[in-house]
Amino acid sequence: MKSIIGYIACIISALIYTIFLDGRCGVIFLAVLIIAPIISISMTLLAKKKVDMTVESSAQMLNKGETVILSATFKKSGIIPAPFIEVSFFNAKNFITSLSKYTLSISARKPMKIQQSYTARIWGVASIGIEEVTMTDYLGLVKFNLYKERGLNEYANAIEIFPNIPDAPAKNDLVRSVCDAVAYDDNEETKENVVATSGFPGYEHKNYTPGDPIKRINWKLSSKRNELMVRLDEAIANSKQVLVLDCCNNQMNLKRPEELFSQLIQDEKIVESVLAMLKILVKQGVECLFYYFSGRAWLECYIANLNDISTLQYNLAKYKFLPQTKEVKECRVPIDVMTEQKKISTMTVFTSCYDENLYSQIQNANQRGIVTHTVVTVPTRFTAENTWIVNDTFEFKSL
User: Fold this and answer.
1) 371-376 and 387-390 as β-strands: parallel, antiparallel, unpaired?
2) What is the 8-class DSSP label of residue 146?
3) Residues 181-238: tens digit of each pLDDT
4) Which residue of 39, 140, 196, 332 is surrounded by the most CB atoms within 10 Å?
């Protein structure tokens, strides 16, 4: 705008000079002022076609708190000098950054590189890239768009941000509840003619000490003796806990940016809650089966040690919750997949969107004999049995 005002002022000055001082020189000045914008715009249009740009990032995967550098390189061919170029970047809400516009001039001999840094703060797959590139003509009168981001991400990179594996308190009621509902039968307190050292016939037991696997606690005997008793025999069936990550969130019903950001935070918390729970169970010697949706089918992961959890952490960096379309709504809990090859007697569902649809599917699982625990991130109006809420320190509290 300032350039246009200045140009108009020059035209007015030339007119005054022509009328009151020197007509011949004034006409020359006017001719130059009128032709100059035409030449400037024409040369800019030619220079615009000679500019190429590329982007690359210093990393494709990050832990939360790590920084990635996005580099944009601009090259120009031909002998026509390029006018000034303005570049602006964008970032997803998963990153923290201080965005600013960059102004550069490109020579024909040497490419020009600019860099923007981003710090990962929220789990998920997120894009960083160039939002807009404009070129102003030599006189600064007209701006031309070299590139405008319209959702195609032509000059952007997708970055995968790993979720954390939190250290949640090992002693909590949810762990005890899910282990109490595990598939092996604690009603059996006799096994051939074995005499337990505790003085009771049946499996050999000892008093629980910190570090003993929770899966070996005999809850029925413990309740009778009013103290925790741990089985010592090796004949216990290899029962596995089943954990399920709900494939839906509530994003489709949200419009405002602050609502979408809040949903992103809830999604991250529920993903990290799964990892926290798996870590607790594995440290107690409990083997787990974990189910999550790939976008096309439900995937099963066998989790037996901390390395398995690290692999799952890598896979969940790419995980995306789905909008509640008609097709997806029908399979938010993979009961049929779980029961195809094995009998599942208990499962724990982790969700950031506990609604009527999910409630109905969980009740269906209960009717089929599957004891279900549900973990949510915010209070829910559904008061189903075995519903738990996880707080910011990853403690699980019963609702």
Assistant:
1) parallel
2) E
3) 654 444 444 343 333 333 333 456 777 777 676 666 777 777 777 888 777 654 344 4
4) 332
Q: What is the pTM of this model?
A: 0.78
- What is the pLDDT, as a whole number, of residue 164? 96
Write out the H or E segment, with its range, that includes residue 366. Answer: helix 356-367
The predicted pLDDT at position 201 comes to 39
- Is the Cβ–Cβ distance between 242 and 291 less than 8 Å? yes
**Residue 58 C-beta-side C-alpha neighbours within 13 Å:** 12
Q: How far apart are CA 379 and CA 383, in angstroms?
A: 10
Cα 93 from Cα 333, distance rounded (Å): 29
Q: How many CA atoms lie within 13 A of 107 on its CB side?
A: 2
Report residue 389 as tokens: 């809420």
Other Cβ atoms closer than 10 A to 246 = 24
Number of other CB atoms surrounding residue 46 within 10 Å: 12
Q: Name which of 303, 296, 265, 298 is nearest 281 in CA terms.
A: 303
Q: What is the pLDDT of residue 181?
A: 65
Q: Which residues contact 398 (CB under 8 A, 6 or more apart)?
A: 173, 174, 386, 387, 388
Angle (CA) 294 300 301, round 5°: 110
Rounded to the nearest 10°, the torsion over CA 386, 387, 390, 394 is 10
Q: What pLDDT does 234 receive?
A: 45
Residues 6+ apart with CB under 8 A from 293: 245, 247, 299, 322, 334
* Distance of alpha carbon 211 from alpha carbon 370, whole angstroms: 29
| pLDDT mean values, one per 10 residues, the chain (399 residues) | 74 73 73 81 87 93 95 87 89 88 82 92 95 89 89 92 89 77 46 37 64 70 78 51 89 82 94 94 86 86 92 93 77 77 79 89 85 89 82 89
d(CA 200, CA 213) in angstroms, rounded, equals 21
Taking the CA of residue 274 as centre, how many other CA atoms within 13 Å lie in the half-sphere pointing to its CB?
A: 30
What CA–CA distance (Å, rounded) separates 393 from 41? 60
Return d(Cα 218, Cα 204) in angstroms, integer.
Answer: 11
Q: End-to-end alpha-carbon separation of the chain, Å?
A: 61
Q: What are phi and psi of 375, to 5 degrees?
A: -110, 125
- Taking the alpha carbons of 367, 369, 370, 374 in that order, is the dihedral positive or negative? positive
